[in-house]
């Protein structure tokens, strides 16, 4: 399976967090639509079917990238 670039995953996670916070303050149709869009993109990008699985997968992938960078194994 192809894996998304770490910077793309980071951006998706940050956007999801920001939109979630915005939705808590202002539950508008536009914010819900944007949150749905980024949630769908997270699922597609991680090859998962639920948002919880997508968030966990994205975080795990990023943790793996961080571990490789820290250990000097990154190319």
Strand elements, count = 0
Q: What is the typical, i.e. mean, pLDDT?
A: 89
H/E element order: HHH
List segments where confidence is low: pLDDT < 50 over at least 5 consecutive residues.
70-75
What's the helix count? 3
Proportion of residues in extended strands: under 5%
Q: Using the CA coordinates, give the radius of gyration.
A: 14 Å
Classification by helices and strands: mainly alpha
Distance between the termini: 20 Å
Shape: elongated
Biggest sheet layout: none
Overall structural domain count: 1
Percent helix, as a range, is over 70%
List the SSEs and their pairings.
Blueprint: H1 6-25, H2 29-46, H3 51-71
Written overview of the protein:
This protein is an all-alpha fold. It has one domain (6-60). It is built from 3 helices and no strands. Residues 70-75 have low confidence and may be disordered.
Features of this protein?
75 residues; mainly alpha; single chain
What would you say about this model in short?
This protein has helices at 6-25, 29-46, 51-71. It is mostly helical. The protein has one domain (6-60).
């Amino acid at each position: 399976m192809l894996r998304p670039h770490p910077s793309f995953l980071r951006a998706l996670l940050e956007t999801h967090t920001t939109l979630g916070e915005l939705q808590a303050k202002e539950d508008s149709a536009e914010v819900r639509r944007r949150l749905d869009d980024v949630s769908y993109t997270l699922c597609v990008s991680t090859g998962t079917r639920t948002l919880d699985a997508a968030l966990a997968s994205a975080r795990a992938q990023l943790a793996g990238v961080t571990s490789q960078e820290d250990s000097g194994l990154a190319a």
